Amino acid sequence: MNKYRIKSHPILNVKEREKVTLYWKGEKIEGYKGEMLASTLFANGVRIFGHHHKDNSPQGIFCANGQCSQCMVIVNGLPVKSCMTPVKEGMRVEPLENYPKLPESNEIPEFGPPRIIKTGVLIIGGGPAGMSAAHELGKKGIDTIIVDDRHRLGGKLVLQTHKFFGSQQACYAGERGIDIATKLESQVKSHESIDIWTNSVAVGVYVDKKVGILKDMNEYVLVEPKTLLITTGAREKSLVFKGNTLPGVYGAGAFQTLVNRDLVRASEKIFIVGGGNVGLIAGYHALQAGIKVVGLVEALKEVGGYKVHKDKLARLGVPIYTSHTIVSANGKDSVESVTIAKIDDHFNIIGGTEKTFKCDTILVAVGLNPVDEFYKKAKSYDMNVFSAGDAEEIAEASAAIYSGRIKGAEIANRMLSLDEPVPEEWKKTGDVLKSKPGKLHKRRIPEKEEGVFPIINCVQEIPCNPCTTVCPKNCIKLDGDSIMNVPLYVNDACIGCEQCVAICPGLAITLVDYRKSDDYVVVTVPFEFEEGTINVGDKVMTVDIEGNEIEETEVIGIKNVKINNRTPLIKLKTSKENAKNIVGIKIQENIVPEDSIDTSEIPDDAIVCRCERVTAGEIRKLINDGVHDMNQIKILTRAGMGACGGKTCRPIIERMLRQAGVPENEITVSTDRPLFVEVELEKFAKGEDKNE
């Protein structure tokens, strides 16, 4: 088990945990009490969780978030999602090779009406938006229930070990997501009027304006709120390509769950598809966990995420291929390599440009879809419903914090009939935090070669200001009135305190010090990696902002103090000629592709519906035959009929219809299921005729 466990981490505190013994296919394995079964299996080297009944294809994890059914296994005779099932002593786990027979029983369960619980506000989703909204409601003493399917509040914040962008005053910029989660959770817990339901799943919204919730994963209850707030976040988009369902192809969020939450080294070598912030950050997290990143591919001419995130990867030695796409995941039972190719302006593959890289994991990070089915259903039933965070609009987590704060205040004022409009400044800040990356500027490097001063390598307009607020001498100012403006070094008062270097979320500031010697310059760079990765006296290769090698230099000091928030500062002895251009240290050798594999464009045998193994060719034929009703496609192919309820394949089928030129008004979207999440039937049999 220890081979695949992360024993130490530059950001996360690896604590001792209680071991439990369980059995996989009759063989004894070890896990940690309370961790998810999928992570225990990964930690024990298990990547294939079963085989599909239709074509015997190997099945592994995909979302690790309860949104699909790829990780289904049999536990003590019953099928469960391993990513949502905590391990327990003595568990007997088998792969889902054949569906188990229903147990024979003559007992007839007693079905009674479930408990009905009334509340002022019900919040579905305990991430940054839900917690911020709950805090605002708690300050006004409004009875609120906040529901989340995890063991604690925090949402995706608990996976985010990097420092946040934005404003220090508004959304904790400069602090790490994992720490922000703890602070927001503490705020929610401080209010007596808020009831926190963790390990509880909202499963449906009904016409009588009640919400069905599986409380504590055991009791089915109905909640009747005066106001419903949906803060359910987002789910990752899927992508269709040859080999896209092989074990080893999964979402970047699933990878971060394994690595950052459960401290499992899920891979040896990964390749990333998608250059948004999710993919770029996942690559950085992989490197911090000691996992090699062999490349990142982005179909657009430039990555969609922040340039500082891209620059971090490039400086560390990760090759980034823009105007490229993935062609295929290659391997028999799991991923063994990936093939990419260059594309033209119409996103068509250019023949002869294929490159193949050895890897065991492909992270799909091609964007997010809002989890908004609860909101839409409640709206159709004319409930008093609102949404916030990614469930309302996809943006950064910092924006979700503010979005939740605004919605919480608006709901509180409305429920209490208060004439207290939400401050316009809040709304302006919220809008700015949702902003996409803006234009690029040239690096502005001071001409002088004396004293000490920062070099600011943040050249893109993004919402961020910690460097301006932390400087004790006000040496750094934004180039304008907006938080979107780039920061500039504006005076010669720098004392070399290094606080700007340590706090920058993009690791985009270095410090050059000419005071130490006439023969060399000391350059201080941030380096968030395991202690011992670099030591005093080591020779390291320095790189510029784009990751180009500059010169080999000697490490003459390492400063790792508490105030720097787990960002060690490396002091390098550099030449005067190159000092101002040094931005970081390379840790990966150049990645060389293997011999190319002969491939063509996406074949008809690529899988669209993962649950029912329905191919692109089957669906494409129906579309070409004039079938534009997704319900009919579902009946004829079973696409969308699987355990995930179409969460993964439905957006792909909609896209295929549009790509085939079908006008939107001719497309009939599929009908939602009454329940959005699977529930064991026995849970409905345990109701009590009791209201609260």
From TrEMBL:
Keywords, comma-separated and alphabetical: Iron, Iron-sulfur, Metal-binding, Oxidoreductase, Transferase
InterPro entries found in the cross-reference section: 2Fe-2S-bd_N, 2Fe-2S_ferredoxin-like_sf, 2Fe-2S_ferredoxin-type, 2Fe2S_fd_BS, 4Fe4S_Fe-S-bd, 4Fe4S_Fe_S_CS, BFD-like_2Fe2S-bd_dom, BFD-like_2Fe2S-bd_dom_sf
Gene3D superfamilies, sorted: 2Fe-2S iron-sulphur cluster binding domain, sarcosine oxidase, alpha subunit, N-terminal domain, 3.30.70.20, BFD-like [2Fe-2S]-binding domain, FAD/NAD(P)-binding domain
Signal peptide: none
Protein transport is among the record's keywords: no
CDD domains: fer2, GlpA-like_Fer2_BFD-like
Residue ranges of domain 4Fe-4S ferredoxin-type in the record: 452-481, 485-514
Protein's UniProt keywords contain Lyase: no
Protein name: Sulfurtransferase
